[in-house]
Amino acid sequence: MNRVAASRERGLSLLLTLMLCAATPTVTKARDAGGGEGGDLAPLASSPVAEAAPADAVEEGIAVKLARGASGLAIEGRFTTAASPAIAWSVLTDYDSIARFVTSMRSSHIVGRSNDTLFVDQQAVGRLFLFSHRLHTSLRVEEEPEVHIRFEDLLGRDFRSYRGEWRIERSNPAGTTVTYHLEADPSFPIPDFVARGLFKSAARDLLSQVRTEIERRAALAAR
Fold first, then answer.
1. Domain of residue 77, CATH code
2. pLDDT digits 0-9 by tens, 130-164
3. How many structural domains does the chain have?
């Protein structure tokens, strides 16, 4: 295998891993376990990248859209479930059990807390064809109970910028809408069409697995 082919394969494998990791607020061992860098994490609702995204592509009740802007690629996905916001929140914040219901995760543990900020140690594995890559990420996570979870990478190793959030909203007539948003600018070269495809695929898998766990817990609570 020549160097160009080998480099391309490593890049594809790494990107898939990173996108699968992005699924949940995941954080490696915090070098800033006593506090994060900068102030509060800024909300993403007014992001020009998100606003520039095309219409949602809906499959099996999961809507996903993707766009490119000044902050890199932006992916947003959402689904609605009959489960309550409280149950959705319990799944999204179950950091120590993420590996049980998100298939890309191998381990996830809270390693520090500071007021409404958490630091979580996590390892994930992504696969592309016959290749795989294990990755640690480091995020600072801020929570507003049953409303949103914001996260931002502190390492800057694989992305020039990497931040996102989960939002929970009560739906009418009954149920809950869960929205996932991520803005990421990879620091390694990769073809745009490949990045777009992997971002979308990984986000859709993530949302599907999270929804399945939410609905499993809702069914148990209803018994």
1. 3.30.530.20
2. 445 566 777 889 999 999 999 988 877 777 887 89
3. 1
CA distance 150 to 132: 28
**Interatomic CA distance for residues 152 and 65, integer angstroms:** 20
Residue 151: Cβ-neighbour burial (10 angstroms; 0-12, 13-18, 19+): buried
Domain range for 80 is: 3-222
Q: What is residue 219's three-state secondary structure?
A: helix
The beta strands (E) that lie in the chain are given as 57-59, 62-69, 72-81, 105-114, 117-128, 131-136, 139-144, 148-153, 159-170, 176-186
- Sign, CA dihedral 79-82-85-86, equals negative
Predicted model pTM: 0.75
